[in-house]
Amino acid sequence: MLDERAKTLLKALVERYIADGQPVGSRTLSRASGLELSPATIRNVMADLEELGLIASPHTSAGRIPTARGYRLFVDTMLTAQPRQWSDPPRIEPQQLQPDQPQRVIAHAAQLLSNLSNFVGVVTAPRKASVFRHIEFLRLGERRVLVILVAPDGDVQNRVIFTATDYSQSQLVEASNFLTQHYAGLTIEEVRERLKNEIDELRAEIATLMQAAVQAGTEAIEESQDQVVISGERNLLTVQDFSSDMGSLRKLFDLFEHKTQLMRLLDISSRAEGVRIYIGGESMVVPFEELSVVSAPYEVNGQVVGTLGVIGPTRMAYDRMIQIVDITSRLVSNALSQK
Prior knowledge:
- The chain has 3 domains: 4-77, Orthogonal Bundle (Arc Repressor Mutant, subunit A); 94-125 and 227-337, GAF domain (Beta-Lactamase, 2-Layer Sandwich), CATH 3.30.450; 134-225, Enolase-like, domain 1 (2-Layer Sandwich).
- The longest helix is centred in the middle third of the chain and has 22 residues, at 204-225.
- A hairpin with an 8-residue loop joins strand 1 and strand 2.
- Helix 2 (26-33) packs across helix 3.
- A 5-stranded antiparallel sheet has the order 7-3-10-9-8, sandwiched between helices. A 3-stranded antiparallel sheet has the order 4-5-6.
- It has helices spanning 4-20, 26-33, 39-51, 68-77, 102-117, 169-183, 188-198, 204-225, 240-243, 246-258, 260-270, 318-337; strands at 55-56, 65-66, 120-124, 134-141, 144-150, 156-162, 228-231, 276-279, 291-300, 303-313.
- It is α+β, with helices and mostly antiparallel strands.
């Protein structure tokens, strides 16, 4: 536990380093903290903070900089900004987030996050309910069947499956009619649960085709939703913390290109309420010590369907990033819920 003097000095050091990007010396810290302490006393406190792993001393400077652990303590206990209060409201044009097309809303949201933060904006595409209105099986050849799932909004998912039995087209039509009649309007998850209880009562060929259809539908929907929109990657080229380290930049751009790690992190964030902050690789999903992610889920009609956030250096104005992410998540939720 830190005493109040140490907390005040750590808070002042983090705020000064975020603002200036330069290691903070004892004289600067004395002025920034407002405490009437001698330089020797401040140096002693800084030595204690360094021993605790909260600050570090770069080799080329006598000053100190925060570590990921120091940022974590600062964010958890010292931030004063409230997510829904704007000390410096950004200018947001209403036409940027119109509910005409979800993909357009998502693209505008990613750009908005990037423009407001000057870092990288990321948004996962909204997850659609996996409900089907109609199911059809089409024989393609021996033991090859095309599964066609039609959603209530007209969206069509196709999947080729391989069956153990060679079904005739008349058998497939019969199965299609039965399954559409008894399962239409349910989600894939609900169908899966019903099958567990009803599979013994269904005819063998229908049970087999339904299980195959459920698996095909699940895979098709997951593929169609495995999307994250990214905006502003080039902003990182101008960030002092990255611009001199081509190795770090290369790793970051690999992250944005492959997206798999980002999807995992944002999926984790969607299960949390409100704004989440991951600092310096502590998420264990995006393990970069120089990187922080500020994220929040967004909703459609009260149901969480995706996540958005800002990715930037650990040296970021966290209070402002929290505000940017929080209000953008609410703007996206409102835009998509108006349909």
